[in-house]
Amino acid sequence: MQRIFISCLLFCYFNIAWAHSCNELSKNTAPTDRFEIMNDGVVIDKATGLMWSRCALGQSWDGVQCLNYETSFFYLEAVEQIELLTLAGFDSWRMPNVKELSSIVDRNCREPSVNFEIFPGMHSRPYWTSTKSNNYNIYGIDMANGNFYPMSEIYQSPTLFVRDHTQ
Q: Can you give the pTM of this predicted structure?
């Protein structure tokens, strides 16, 4: 019984210690008022003119939150799935490049490093971008800290999707 109690205590401690947090003394780099929240699971970034899905590929928006855990895909599989996608009446979605995905990283937040009010379904793990690195890999962004690095195409990872709002 004591072992179960200690296990539960440690589980709760580590889940709280690694929960999403933002430094309230610093200015957010992706504040909520930068985004126009639409009713259909998308947001418009007024700074970049991009329309974003609020949920990752494999999740769905219920009007309040993202349902399900995001699906991890091989790179080419993710590209194909996004090409088949229709959301908010648009079928012109694509995988974001590294600059675009970096634009929603909130350097003031950790675990994940995004504005959780805008992207409530994101987790602290690498997300695909469409940007190729110079060694035949694809850049991913680790949403735990917002850093990007090359990932092999055979790695499975989730992705957000984006479109130009003016299309």
A: 0.82
